[in-house]
């Protein structure tokens, strides 16, 4: 599923969450953050707000965009686990975020884990010393 949202001076945050009752694993992957029409030449800082292993809220800046020097940033499918909030911490935008949402049902997840195990069983070639 594709995901897209826009952060602006009037809409400074967007929260992506899934149904608590859903027992599937959800992965949200952020691929591109970019300034769109109407953006001023100012620093636009986008933060990802989530929870750490102690369930405390944590905000991490993922992009600092400026029209004149870096209007777009590729995040190479930066993977996040919902719920997650994207926040415009500085600037007025508009900043567009694009990515995808993948749902893995429990039986799919166990199948993938089996694949990972078989790869580990393969023998790696010995490391050869460098020639001088």
TrEMBL record:
Keywords: Acetylation, Chaperone, Methylation, Nucleus, Phosphoprotein. It comes from the Eukaryota. Its main location: nucleus. One of its GO terms (molecular function) is histone binding. GO terms for cellular component: cytoplasm; nucleolus; nucleoplasm. It is found in: Nucleus, Nucleolus. Pfam families: Nucleoplasmin (PF03066). Residues 110-132 are annotated as: Disordered. Gene3D superfamilies: Nucleoplasmin core domain. InterPro entries: Nucleoplasmin, Nucleoplasmin_core_dom, Nucleoplasmin_core_dom_sf. Coiled coil: none annotated. Residues 110-124 have a biased composition (Acidic residues). GO terms for biological process: chromatin remodeling. Residues 3-102 form the Nucleoplasmin core domain. Belongs to the nucleoplasmin family. Plays a role in the regulation of diverse cellular processes such as ribosome biogenesis, chromatin remodeling or protein chaperoning. Modulates the histone chaperone function and the RNA-binding activity of nucleolar phosphoprotein B23/NPM. Efficiently mediates chromatin remodeling when included in a pentamer containing NPM3 and NPM. PANTHER family: NUCLEOPLASMIN, NUCLEOPLASMIN-3. Interacts with NPM (via N-terminus). Forms a pentamer with NPM at a ratio 4:1 (NPM3/NPM). Two pentamers form a decamer. This is Nucleoplasmin-3.
